[in-house]
Amino acid sequence: QVQLQESGPGLVKPSGTLSLTCAVSGGSISSSNWWSWVRQPPGKGLEWIGEIYHSGSTNYNPSLKSRVTISVDKSKNQFSLKLSSVTAADTAVYYCAREVVAATRNWFDPWGQGTLVTVSS
Amino acid sequence: DIQMTQSPSSLSASVGDRVTITCRASQSISSYLNWYQQKPGKAPKLLIYAASSLQSGVPSRFSGSGSGTDFTLTISSLQPEDFATYYCQQSYSTRPFTFGPGTKVDIK
Q1: Using beta carbons and an 8 Å cutoff, which residues of B are at the interface with A?
Q2: What is the distance between the alpha carbons of residues A11 and A14, in angstroms, rounded to a whole number?
Q3: Distance to chain B for A46, nearest Cα, Å
Q4: CB spacing of B96 vs A48 below 8 angstroms
Q5: Strand A18-25 versus strand A3-7 pairing type
Q6: What is the separation of C-alpha A89 from the centre of its chain, rounded to a whole number of angstroms?
Q7: How many CA within 13 A on the CB side of residue B47?
Q8: Where are the beta strands (DSSP E) in chain B?
Q9: Each residue of A14-42: b (16+ CB within 10 Å) or e?
Q10: Percent of chain A predicted with pLDDT > 90
Q11: What angle do CA B5, B7, B12 make, to 5 degrees?
């Protein structure tokens, strides 16, 4: 079964760039799925950041679009998130998730365990 | 963006109770609606997709219904492991995907 694992620095300085990687195991990132990033500030709800297909096609949340880049590395079976110009408001648990698409419907399953990124000097 | 609301924001219930959570979309989303369960410190887990389809491995006491703008998640007989926060999420065609604010179910 497919499993996802996030990795990356847990602490990023204000105005810096947050960089995370999601390693996919148990399946190919080149399958007919999209791959998404979702974040959750401490004690708050879920926010979709963006998605990528193995071809490199991406869609981003307009609220973050100017600062977000999602990329894919098929050779390593992983995809990555970069968020620039971070502030304390970007402190959150960041999840990666497989986005299943069936009959034009999409849902997230499974999810990675999540990684907390704190923005602080 | 399509806005999602949930009610109630929290509820207290006892083991064995029937629990109903409502989710409403700011515009019609047909059946492009999913439900997730999240326990403290854990990632969300898919329960229901396409409004009423039960994800494999999820107990049959969970069910979903609705179409258009109004949706419901029902737990027919609440079990101790069901105490968690529940989120709805719309996947209608135009991005971004959006989630409801969550409903926390705790022990009465």
Answers
A1: 1, 31-32, 34, 36, 42-46, 49-50, 55, 87, 89, 91, 93, 95-102
A2: 10
A3: 6
A4: yes
A5: antiparallel
A6: 17
A7: 26
A8: 4-7, 10-13, 19-25, 33-38, 45-49, 53-54, 62-67, 70-75, 85-90, 98-99, 103-107
A9: eebebbbbbbbeeeebeeebbbbbbbbee
A10: 96
A11: 145
What are the Cα distances from residue A93, in Å, to A5, A39, A40? 13, 6, 5
Whether B94 has a pLDDT exceeding 80, the answer reads no
Mutate to test the interface with A, among B29, B71, B88, B91 (most CBs of A within 10 A): B91
Q: What is the mean pLDDT of residues B40-68?
A: 97
What is the structure's pLDDT at A87? Answer: 98
Contact predicate A37/A81, CB 8 Å: yes
pLDDT per position as a tens digit, A53-111: 999 999 999 999 999 999 999 999 999 999 999 999 999 999 999 999 998 889 999 99
Tokens (6 digits) for B65: 């219904």
Give every CB contact of residue B71 below 8 A, 6+ residues apart in sequence: B22, B23, B24, B25, B33, B51, B64, B65, B88
User: For B91, which residue in chain A has the nearest alpha carbon?
Assistant: A106
Residues from chain A contacting residue B42 (CB–CB below 8 Å): 113
Looking at residue B107, its pLDDT comes to: 87
| pLDDT score, position A103 | 85
